[in-house]
Amino acid sequence: MAKAKTAYVCSECGASFNKWQGQCGECGAWNTLSEFVVEPAAAAGRPAVRHGSWAGRVDGEAITPLWDVGQAVEQRLSTGIGELDRVLGGGLVEGSVVLVGGDPGIGKSTLLLQALALMAARVPALYVTGEESLAQVAGRAQRLGLPLDKLHALAETCVEKILANAARATPAPRLLVADSIQTLWSELLTAAPGSVSQVRESAARLVRFAKETGTSVFLVGHVTKEGGIAGPRVLEHMVDAVLYFEGESGSRFRVLRAFKNRFGAVNELGVFAMGDKGLREVPNPSAIFLSGSRTAQPGSAVMVTREGTRPLLVEVQALVDQSPLANPRRVALGLEQNRLAMLLAVLHRHGGVGVFDQDVFVNVVGGIRLQETAADLPVLLAVLSSLRDRPLAEKTVAFGEVGLSGEIRPVPNGEERLKEAATHGFRRAIVPRANAPKQGAFKGMEVIAVERLAQALEAAE
Ligand code: TYD
Ligand code: MG
Fold first, then answer.
1. Are residues 138 and 235 in the same domain?
2. Which of 283, 310, 344 is the last residue of a domain?
3. Interatomic CA distance for residues 294 and 303, integer angstroms
4. What integer is the mean pLDDT of 357-364?
5. Ligand 1 in contact with 358 (CB < 6 A)?
6. N or C: which end of the chain has fewer CB within 10 A?
7. Quick one: 104 and 203 in the same domain?
8. Does the C-beta of 110 come closer than 6 Å to ligand 1?
9. Same domain, yes or no: 255 and 198
10. d(Cα 226, Cα 218) in Å, to the nearest integer?
11. H/E segment holding residue 241
């Protein structure tokens, strides 16, 4: 094969060089050069498209009314795992490329092996492993009790060989898992496997393969602690969907979150529990994100979040303690740090409660990450409860956005959230006025409507 033309491109300024060097000659940044294919070998002979050729066809491509194109409805395939289907937006779209990212050991290989084995009964599937031997994969599948007769596997890391194998296989695979993208490398590049350029180029080839053949591809990617230099971050814009697999170490619960999805809602959550038979679906996840403590504890507030398309009860815990430091600590787990700092400022200015000499720790139970502003009010109620060392009233739930001028703003889908809380036996809800029903009660639950932070703090006393 003709050697592709490659160049070393600086990720800071975009300057390109023929040889690798430690420092960019243009902008002076260190260690920012990585190798990229400038011109793939196969495309080298293609004539350039000239401007001014609007009349008529250009290289067989043509401008087409979308109406003529839009009639082809995407074909979806159930993965056989309901929670995975939900996160994908109702099943796997044919010919789509889905990146599944997460920390090492979280269960990515287990999830995809389970899904692939279930789908292999209906469509030809290929599991490509670059991390484990075939014997290890087979052993795991057997331990999980998965049907193996239809599932084909390949232990290979060279992306050209993987594609050649896939093209030769009969029947041709309609599904392919590449586990993991960090182990793959392309013959076109000299960089080491795992480097940004190799990860990008390997993914680009698999994406092209998916689009050309209509094969659905799952890419597994490890998130690295250093911010994901060779992790899946660089791939996010290349693929159709990005799912993150998250969970607390030590907890058996795992949350699969859609971070990007061209075919469905983002922030959709799928919940799983890891057991000795692999990952099991948790169809009613509300209960598991409460700490399990039966009596109300100081520093704890329960909220109804709505991640994706379903409401979820989640417990927010706070610990407020006298600080020995000149700059007291603000630590937020499962929540944005800056948001916490802002909320504490609003608490002081509009709630009259100062915590400037206190360390404040906030944690969302169950390793879940809250991204919506409905968590504002429960966070402040948990902080206040810890500061006063008094629990909130039993069976109380809260949600609402807190504005900078101390107003409590409504959040979407209020009624659905109230319904979830009532279903799980909550007796009292503190919510924004616009989210509260007029009669002050909802399915036997007392609903306290608040407009200002001060009112909410008073209601929580
Ligand atoms: P794995 O799928 O290999 O993680 P990843 O591919 O994301 O690196 O999962 C590995 C972890 O899952 C490992 O710590 C063991 C645990 N596990 C179970 O608890 N039960 C099981 O049935 C399996 C297969 C794995
Ligand atoms: Mg793995």
1. yes
2. 283
3. 16
4. 95
5. no
6. N
7. yes
8. yes
9. yes
10. 24
11. strand 241-246
Nearest atom (ligand 1) to Cα of 104: 8
Q: Which protein residues have a CB closer than 5 Å to ligand 2 (ion)?
A: 109
Indicate the SS3 state at residue 147: coil
Q: What is the domain extent for residue 21?
A: 5-43
Residue 388 lies in a domain: yes
- The structure's pTM equals 0.77
Look at residues 304, 210, 220, 303 and name the one whose alpha carbon lies nearest to residue 256: 220
Shared domain for 97 and 14, answered yes or no, is no
> Do residues 204 and 185 touch, judged by C-beta distance below 8 A?
no
Q: 28: number of CA atoms within 13 Å, CB side?
A: 0
Residues 309-344: tens digit of each pLDDT: 788 899 999 999 999 999 999 999 989 999 999 999
Q: Indicate whether 111 and 186 sit together in one domain.
A: yes
**Is 96 among the domain residues?**
yes
Q: Per residue, what are the HEC states of 352-383?
A: CCCCCCEEEEEEEHHHCCCCCHHHHHHHHHHH
Distance CA 198, CA 182 (A): 8
> Which ligand gives the minimal distance to the CA of 140?
1
Kindly provide the residue ranges of all beta strands, DSSP E only, lying in 188-230, ordered along the sequence. Answer: 216-222
Domain of residue 273, CATH code: 3.40.50.300
CA distance 358 to 376: 19
**Angle, nearest 10°, between helix axes 108-120 and 134-143?**
80
ipTM: 0.96
Does ligand 1 have an atom closer than 6 angstroms to the CB of 249?
no
Question: Are 95 and 234 part of one and the same domain?
Answer: yes
- Please check whether residue 392 is in contact with residue 460, taking contact to mean a CB–CB distance below 8 angstroms: yes
Return left, alpha or beta for 456; rule: phi > 0 is left, psi -120 to 50 is alpha, else beta. alpha
Do 250 and 350 lie in one domain? The reply is no
Q: Both tokens of residue 435?
A: 């989210």
Looking from the CA of residue 278, the nearest atom of ligand 1 is 22
Cα 56–61–65 angle (5° rounding)?
Answer: 85
**Rounded-to-integer distance, Cα 343 and Cα 357, Å:** 16
Distance CA 157, CA 213 (A): 21
When divided into structural domains, the chain yields a total of 3
Binding residues for ATP: 102-109
Please check the confidence at residue 191 and state whether its pLDDT lies above 60: yes
Q: What is the C-alpha separation between 2 and 4, in angstroms, rounded?
A: 6
Indicate whether 347 pLDDT > 90. Answer: yes
The answer to whether 272 and 283 are in contact (CB under 8 A) is no
84 with 184, same domain: the answer is yes
Q: Whose CA is nearest to atom 24 of ligand 1?
A: 278
